[in-house]
């Protein structure tokens, strides 16, 4: 009998037990509190998400794990939990057909911070005028619901959302869990996932430290290279200046050579003439006479 009573207990009892400590437990709110809709679309909304309307919303998976443990310790019967930061982004391709009003999430009101919740629950469900329209979309591979609340699951795999991550797989497990015991089956996977992320983070930090050291070495080498380059540039500048000075001096000497060349020729001719005269004197006069002539000159 006790087991039967526990089996029929539902989210209302669990919520009443958690409400008082919601903030302490990390509960942001419950779906029925953060989402609203007009009366016109109420039947469609409730038909599409009746299993999730009383789900608790938490910021992340770590809070999910701790909250699930609290629920288990208190032996509460049933609770669905949605971690905000684990909801994947996706975009629906809108089909073209008459009777389609749009995506159901566009007819739900919420604060901007809870947009992922609306997308998670209603972002892949088409809203139609009639049940026949919803059924036709269902056959085409879409989840669809009419304004009157006739909800049809997708009957083909024409549309899929593949995030290909452990988080999305865990989210799928959570969505299929009808009791806290089913939800707690994910805790081991969650802990392994968190541990793997911590291990990856540690490797990234080690790699970052190594790269920072390499960067410091590269910056030191760059500084040395810059200093050497500056020194070489100064030396090259000095050599260029010296070369320019030499070129200028050579040009000046060439001009001077060209200017003195006629005079040199004249002097050379005079020297040659004198040498000839000296030769004649040596040939026609004795040494004593040469001395006498020299003294007279």
UniProtKB/TrEMBL annotation:
Residues 187-221, 264-291 form a coiled coil. The keyword Coiled coil applies. GO terms for biological process: chromosome organization. Keywords: Coiled coil. GO terms for molecular function: ATP binding. Residues 25-138 form the SMC hinge domain. One of its GO terms (cellular component) is chromosome. The keyword Coiled coil applies. InterPro entries: SMC_hinge, SMC_hinge_sf. PANTHER family: STRUCTURAL MAINTENANCE OF CHROMOSOMES PROTEIN 3. This is SMC hinge domain-containing protein. It comes from marine metagenome. The lineage of its organism: unclassified sequences, metagenomes, ecological metagenomes.
